[in-house]
Design a protein that fits this description.
Radius of gyration: 22 Å
Order of helices and strands: EEHEEHEEEEHEEEEEEEEHEEHHHHHHHH
CATH architecture of the largest domain: 3-Layer(bba) Sandwich
Distance between the termini: 68 Å
Largest sheet: 8 strands, mixed
Oligomer: single chain
Helix content: 25-40%
Number of strands: 18
CATH class of the largest domain: Alpha Beta
Strand content: 25-35%
Structural class: alpha/beta
Number of helices: 12
Length: 415
């Protein structure tokens, strides 16, 4: 039987998550023919996506299901109020808004391999499907079908198990969002990796509660985090009385900025997960217009050629030199977090969130420059105790690409 071939398009986007969908919408809005290939038809994104409201593009802020101004961190006692509004995205509204921005073809299928043919690319799918395009964008997530992301020392994962449930007694203060709670009310929480509670009051007696390991190698398993979450809730006297849904996430946090290649990657497939917070969606929504501009201009300059120039332009927009330098500084911070033992993590974050809000907010923002990041890291180093300073110093000495001298240089200090 002959392959089921489809007409050629300008750009084929692999993956059906919010990043790939946002880029598809922006490319199509600029007049390019776009095919998005995903294993499922268009449907609301299944994961729970939270973001600092100010990091979302203005149009995406309208897709917030809920916004909290009472945002808290517990690294001991008392609570640290963060004073920055935090949003839970309405995934159905986000998809609906993106699909309404332009017209493009959504194809249900699974891309299996890609190869150059003539002046374009041929992508083979399941059941003999074949698609043709001038440029391929791999937005398939952490599995990255085509692109390749490297993780120094091996992947270090963030893992989390959470539930949406109803409670007779509130597990967190009603009306609040808890970004990080490192308190350990149960013996189970005082053993193994340090984990924290991430929680949202969804209204009435409904809450989303999630036990999270920020970054670890090896990482806690789903079963372990489930046990820890239930132990926490039981110890508080707030066991769930009815679980509506469960969520499990596991993804690498320590991606290096990837080398550009003939296939453009996007979102998590391009290593754009924030190495300290694990956030990615707000950055992917914000990056899409600039990447789409660069790709569109390059494709229009060379109508009859392969999309190599477009891929190079997209990579340059996604990972400019200043962003690559910032990633190296962030990876230094990742090395420090991996070197901290469970007893020092709460102390580290207490020092971090005691910084002026503009400084810790900038450190967590995906677009902050290397110099600002380095200055914040040095301030944390100066203000924290010896138990935290030693792992930070070790990380600076051990990092394969960033030395303490380079860190100081990035911060604008004499070396």
């Amino acid at each position: 039987m002959a392959p089921l071939s489809s007409p050629s398009c300008d750009v084929l986007v692999i993956g059906g998550g919010p990043g790939g969908t946002a880029l598809s919408a922006e490319l199509a809005a600029r007049g390019l023919s776009v095919r998005q290939v995903a294993p499922h038809p268009p449907r609301p994104f299944p994961a729970t996506y939270g973001a600092w409201l100010g990091e979302l593009p203005a149009w995406a802020q309208g897709c917030a299901e809920q916004v909290w101004t009472d945002v808290r961190v517990y690294t001991g006692s008392p609570v640290t109020p963060l004073g920055q509004p935090y949003a839970l995205l309405d995934n159905a509204a986000l998809l609906r808004t993106l699909r309404g921005r332009a017209d493009w073809t959504w194809t249900q299928g699974r891309a299996m391999h890609a190869e150059r043919r003539g002046t374009g690319w041929t992508v083979g799918g399941e059941s003999g499907a074949v698609w043709h395009a001038r440029l391929i964008v791999d937005a398939s997530g952490h599995g990255a079908l085509v692109s390749s992301v490297r993780f120094p020392g091996g992947p270090a994962l963030q893992t989390a198990y959470g539930v949406v449930a109803r409670f007779r007694r509130p597990p967190v203060t009603p009306g609040s969002m808890v970004w990080m709670d490192y308190r350990t009310p149960a013996p189970e929480l005082r053993r193994g990796e340090a984990t924290f509670l991430y929680a949202m009051h969804l209204g009435a007696d409904r809450y989303f509660v999630e036990e999270t390991s920020l970054i670890a190698r090896p990482a806690p398993t789903r079963d372990e985090l489930r046990r820890r979450l239930l132990a926490r809730l039981d110890a508080q006297g707030t066991p769930p009385r009815g679980i509506e849904s469960e969520e499990w996430v596991a993804f690498p946090m320590n991606a290096q900025a990837p080398a550009p290649g003939p296939v453009l990657a996007y979102g998590a497939a391009a290593g754009r997960v924030h190495p300290v917070s694990g956030f990615q969606v707000a950055g992917a929504l914000a990056d899409a217009p600039g990447v789409a501009d660069a790709v569109t201009a390059a494709l229009r300059r060379s109508e009859d050629s392969l999309g190599d120039d477009a891929a190079a332009a997209g990579w340059a927009a996604l990972w400019p030199p200043e962003r690559r330098a910032a990633r190296e500084v962030h990876l230094l911070g990742v090395g420090a977090l991996l070197g901290l033992d469970r007893s020092t993590l709460p102390h580290f974050f207490r020092t971090f969130f005691d910084l002026p809000p503009r400084e810790w907010t900038a450190f967590l923002h995906p677009g902050t420059d290397a110099g600002s990041l380095a200055r914040t890291m040095l301030r944390v180093f100066a203000q924290t105790g010896g138990r935290v300073r030693l792992p930070l110093a070790r990380a600076a000495l051990a990092h394969p690409a960033v030395s303490s001298r380079a860190l100081a240089a990035a911060a604008g200090l004499k070396v």
